[in-house]
Design goal:
The protein is an all-alpha fold. The protein is 69% helix and 3% strand.
Amino acid sequence: MLPINTWKILLSGGLLGLLLSSVLLLIVIYRLSPMLQSRRKLSLRDQHINPVPRYGGIALFWGFIGALFLVWWLPFEQRGLGLQSLPDNRLAGLCIGGLMAWGMGFADDIFLIRARWKLTWQIGIALLAIGFGFDIKAVQIPFFQQAIDLGIWSWPLTVLWIVGVMNAVNLIDGLDGLASGITIVALVCLATICWWQGQISLLLLILILIGSTMGFWSFNRPPATVFMGDSGSLFLGFILAVLSIWVFEAPTGVLSMSPVLMMAIPLLDTAFAVFRRLLKGIPFYSADNDHLHHRLIGKGFSSPQAMIILVSVSVLFSGLSLLAHQMSHLQGYTLLGGVFLAYLLLYWLEYD
């Protein structure tokens, strides 16, 4: 149990991130957005008739980075909570990779980059992250309580995970407050594990990110006054991918299947989107109106209700992820519970 004074300092880091992202969002909405008129047309994923600024990723990313720099320079280290105690390679990889993901998304928000170039850049970002120590070396197999050394498959699987999560968060960002809400749930899950493990400095970093994302969510919740755009969604996707490796990885270097449960909603939506488009014979990166939230709206739910339902289901999946991490002998059963929960959701939404 952490002392109350320690929690005060930790939460002040989160409040700093919330304050900076909120101030930057006001600047983005009222100053930058009128100058950065997007060339995009309305997408099939848009739920608004009137155009909404889609540059919230600027405030999301720079609010987080700004808060990180302030915490680095403020006397947090004197209390034993400084970011200086984190591994330099991973902290640098998180910031540099996050900047590259944000930069690619921002360029796409303005210039509409072709899908093949975005995918190539994402693979490059994933390889960069591997170079900074975010590689999946071994995976624990449920039920058997054994770990498989991935060997030569370590890099391909890590690239698949990072690129997959980046695109999953990007694709789920089709409803007011949905992507940011699911991200907050996942970050709270990661923060809880850091608290259990006593990783205080990493917990501080995650709380700063939670604060920055909550600052954005307050403007993005229904009815949204700003969208995060590809710059925000790709940045959050990258951060979630590398943090899940960082937090869930055991001291022996073995990674469990728990991150898959934590990210179940975006991964499910992405997997079915790709499968659905391949069956239709259209490019997998094409937009359509058959995502999970579209199905909920088709059942008569309003946009806010659909957002609340999917975020709530994400809470259930994150709960299973925490259970699997805390009680490793139940990991197989929690994974089966996640499969059953996913089946119920897809069956209810009539994905035959």
